[in-house]
Amino acid sequence: MKPIRKIFHRLNLAYQAFRYGEVRPESAEELRTITEEEISEVKEFFPMPKYFVFGHARSGTTLLARLLRVHPDVHCNWQTHFFTRRPFLEDLVSSPEIRRWMSQTSNRWIKGDDFSPLALRVISDFMLEREAREEAKSVVGDKSPNTAVQGKGVVRLHRLYPEGKLIFIVRDGRDAVLSHRFLNFIDFPDYLPEEDLVIRDAFAADPEPFFRGEKSLFSAGELQQAAKKWVNNVEETHCRGKEMFGSAYYSLRFEDLVAQPDRVMTRLWEFLGVDVSSPTLSDRIRDQLSQNPDAAWQRQQAGDLVSNLQKGKAGSWLDLFTQEDKDTFHAAAGDTLRAWGYK
Question: Which fold would CATH assign to domain 31-339?
Answer without folding.
Answer: Rossmann fold (3.40.50)
